[in-house]
Amino acid sequence: MAQAPRRGEPGSVFRRCAVRRVRVRRWRRRLAAASSARCFVDAPVAAFAACQLVGWGVATPQQILEQARTVLLVDWPSPAVPRALLEARLAVFGFAPGGYSRAELAAQPPAPRDGLVSFSPERDEVGHLVFHHLDRRPEQVDIVYVHRPAGELPGILLTHAVPLHAAALWLQPPLRFADARWLAESSGPAIVEDSDIVELARGRWR
Question: What is the pTM of this model?
Answer without folding.
Answer: 0.70
